[in-house]
Amino acid sequence: MGYKHGLSNKCGRLYPLWKSIKYRCYCKTSRDYKNYGGRGIVMCDEWKNDFLSFHDWAIANGYKEEKTDKGLNILTIDRIDVNGNYEPSNCRFVTNAEQAKNKRNSIPIEEKFLKCPVCGKQFVKKKRNGQKTCSNRCGRILYCREHPNTKDYMKICPICNKSFNAKRGGHYNDAVYCSKKCKDLSGSPVWEHNGQTHRVVEWAEIVGINAHCLLHRKDMGWTIEEILTTPLRGRRKCRM
Fold first, then answer.
1. Rounded to the nearest 5 degrees, what angle is found at the Cα of 224, between the Cα atoms of 214 and 190?
2. Number of domains within the chain
3. Chain centre distance of CA 112
4. 96 and 115 assigned to the same domain
5. Whether residues 90 and 136 fall in one domain
6. One domain for residues 28 and 78
């Protein structure tokens, strides 16, 4: 006949807590077994075979039957080492907020703020096994450094001097410019006026006249000054 401690109905939620720990550590049909017993986490023999020992330890280490306004328990049992066992030296009672900071995927404060190895910018790491750099661009550069045999698909646009992924459009060998705007600028003639040198597409944005109109004026024999300083004629009003 087993030992009767008489505390199962008198100690609040301690007895259900003790049973739930044993259940997830030893019962293979438990949905939480893979995160506890499946990882080799067990309950020490002192607690496993004697609930009274677990009860006395909990009372002596700050356990309280307190709940929030929503009926949630304020204190919960927490393992200091998330990979350790349920034993007196590795367990404590803390709030849910404190326990949330002590998970396998939690990031310690000293590891949360990192310095990008590519550009030197400081960034916040969001996941334990997350990013190593501050941006995707720096991540690609770092990957190419760590894998020298991997082809680098980054090119420099000859118009704006910005780096871009030439493989993004699927035609690496044909990609020369980072965008359609830069491609249009590349085929646009260069004009000089009042000490300023710009391509026709850029002059169109400056003077507010369509680039096609500017080139048409050039074909008609206009000078650069006339092309850029002559305003457009207003639209004729239709007679009703």
1. 75
2. 3
3. 12
4. no
5. no
6. yes
E strand intervals along the chain: 75-79, 91-95, 113-115, 122-124, 154-156, 163-165, 190-193, 196-199
- pLDDT > 70 in the chain, percent: 80
- Overall pTM > 0.85: no
Q: Are residues 29 and 61 in the same domain?
A: yes
Nearest CA-CA partner of 73 in 45, 88, 95: 95
Tokens of 194: 């009042």
Summarised one tens digit per residue, pLDDT across range 88-99 is 999 999 888 888
Could you tell me which residues come within 8 angstroms of residue 80 by beta carbon, excluding any fewer than 6 positions away?
A: 90, 91, 92, 102
Give a yes or no: residue 128 inside a domain.
Answer: yes
Q: Which domain holds residue 197?
A: 188-229
Q: Is 57 helix (H, G, I), strand (E, B) or coil?
A: helix
